[in-house]
Amino acid sequence: MGKIVIAIDGYSGCGKSSTAKAVAKDLGYTYIDSGAMYRAATLHFLNSYLSPSNPHDVEKGLKDLEIEFHPNPDSGEQETYLNGLNVEKEIRTMRVSENVSNLAKEKEIRKVLVAQQKKLGKSKGVVMDGRDVGSVIFPDAELKVFMTADLETRAYRRQQELLAKGDLVDLEEIQKNLAERDQIDSTREEGPLIKVEDAVEIDTSNLNFAEQVAQIVDLAQQKI
Ligand code: C5P
To answer: Which residues bind ATP (predicted)?
Structure first.
């Protein structure tokens, strides 16, 4: 049986990461969270007091930026490391969410992360989620999915996710952040969020988690 590349793009907070992770597990594929890399880069710039819109800062910030994924020894799930430190939890905080899209629109930063993402997916049997996976990172992916859901649903789901981690965040604050990120991500010059022609659109507003995973696994099995 041949292995394929699955690209999952879509708006912020529509469950791409958890869905992609479950699809990868089901198929025995590797899951790569491209958004985690932009989040880790954002944390690095914030912690180093560097501005992603200042070219000198960008040069400095990229010089000592090392992002890796390593499996958690208990769950086996991939976790994000920034310069050797596990930052999986910290990159999901509102502090990072509020700054990530402004970093992700910078051309020089995208160039570096996109090159790393292409390398990570060189061998087939990969599910990657993000904003430009089907358009820029893997334009030849055998299966491209574009996930959507209405803003209220997305904000509510994200709130529940944060709550499960012990973070109580106001629904309105989450909704505002998701809308802002969508706006910046869709209108930037470099690798904007778009639905490519050959992507299958899945609106998850009225689907439960198991249903959205099953739909993508089904689509993948038709291609394998
Ligand atoms: O997927 P996630 O919501 O964690 O992504 C965080 C942010 O990273 C997005 O809002 C977007 O600005 C950026 N991103 C990107 N390209 C990707 C993945 C994420 O620009 N492939």
So the answer is: 10-18
Do residues 201 and 146 lie in contact, with contact meaning Cβ atoms separated by under 8 Å? yes
- Tokens describing residue 28: 């025995």
User: Residue 1: what pLDDT?
Assistant: 62
From 8, 17, 34, 98, the mutation candidate for ligand 1 (largest count of ligand atoms within 8 A of CB) is: 34
In whole angstroms, what separates CA 30 from the centre of its chain? Answer: 14
Ligand 1 atom with the smallest distance to the CA of 36 is 4
What's this model's pTM, rounded to 2 decimal places?
Answer: 0.96
Do 210 and 13 form a contact (C-beta atoms < 8 A)? no
- For ligand 1, atom 1, name the residue with the nearest CA: 35
Q: What percent of the chain has pLDDT over 90?
A: 92
Domains of the chain: 5-223 (3.40.50.300)
What confidence tens digit (pLDDT) does each residue in 6-49 have? 999 999 998 899 999 999 999 999 999 999 999 999 999 999 99
Distance, in Å, from the CA atom of 208 to the CA atom of 111, rounded to the nearest integer, reads 35
